[in-house]
Specification:
This protein is α+β, with helices and mostly antiparallel strands. The protein has helices at about 20, 85-95, 120-125, 170-180, and strands spanning about 30, 35-40, 60, 65-70, 75-80, 100-105, 110-115, 140-145, 150-155, 160-165.
Length: about 190
Amino acid sequence: MAEPIIGLPRTHPLQAWAPALADLPDAVRVTVEPHDAMVDVRLADPGALDLPTTPNTWVPTDAGRAVWLGPDEWLLTSGSETPWEFEERVRAAAGPLGGAVVDVSAQRITLRLTGERARDVLAKGCSIDLHPKVFGRGGSAQTTLGMAGVVLLALSDAGDDYLVLVRSSFAGYLADWLLDAALEYSAP
């Protein structure tokens, strides 16, 4: 495993957008989540690692989430381990089962949308049905938001709490898109 380069500051791709995102109204809050360690897991037998088998779902884990991405693919996150520690731990569990594990921590950043208008903002650029009866807590989808590919996770059954995982290279575009989409809910 490669060790991190000491002395280089870690900056978030959305650091420049933080003030504008913080100015959004309570009806739709967009917060930039801290970096999580993320690994992509390919495994034939998900039951051996207690991964979700229902399509388009996620489940909480001890330190993060396990997101179903496909019949033999999952995205695992951890907020308490470094990327290389997390990859090593998951590889030690999946490797003997014939699984493949790849660190994808730098691939995506996470935004959290909360508030009574969060679902309305997402619906402006997302073609899936976001009604809580269809897409409630534990639901996940690989979809587009605006024109950016995202992984969307529903955190509540009320339609007011979501995580959006977007590729780092599209983060600025998506932040601009969200700011524009939330504009109508801002006070005059």
